[in-house]
């Protein structure tokens, strides 16, 4: 952060920022099942923009058996696996010219998915208390900008979140409900309109993109926000405490609880 101007609005990603990161669930799954670390994220990112994961997060397909079958196929894509393995080998042994590719790892996409969803329902011990303090201060517009999924009718995850994260936001921009997904430039334009809609209702006119600070854990999403003129703050996996310290400097508020209290 180089800007000194105090933001008027704060935009938060959810997974990996306000709640535990689904990336941690992926990492734990890969390690537990002897899958090369990074393969799942590589497969998901390289099937963009029309992979099963991306369609689900845009609300184009349902979260059902067909999705899990398609997700399994994306995670067993032979050409992507070859590309990933070649990159892995070059990183480990740059001079190795071997083209032997090991068998595709077996992944239970449905089990992995639900573990990601389960893990990401746990509030972050540092960011969530900070979020509540920011909300209680009444000094900022607080919004969410998150890539999301729509759970099946009747699923318990459709009920109000027991952790109360969503209650902290003045508005919530959900990819699965808008049909737009980060890093699509259009979702940032949509979010800026929401900022100004809420601001106008509070008597604040013309909130510029530079008046908005966006927190996310994915570099690609932050780059797209910067292109839209939005200020950004990177959240590093396992280091949300450091991010809260930065937020204290940016907002001028005391946000970080004692380490002992945060662990409770």
UniProtKB/TrEMBL annotation:
Q: Which InterPro entries match?
A: ACAD10-like, HAD-like_sf, HAD-SF_hydro_IA, HAD_sf, PGP-like_dom2
Please report the name of this protein according to its UniProt entry.
60S ribosomal protein L5
Q: Which keywords fit this entry according to its UniProt record?
A: Ribonucleoprotein, Ribosomal protein
The record, for Pfam families, names:
Hydrolase
Name any GO cellular component annotation.
Answer: ribosome
Top-level taxon of origin: Eukaryota
Query: Known PANTHER family for this protein?
Result: HAD FAMILY PHOSPHATASE, HYDROLASE, PUTATIVE (AFU_ORTHOLOGUE AFUA_1G12880)-RELATED
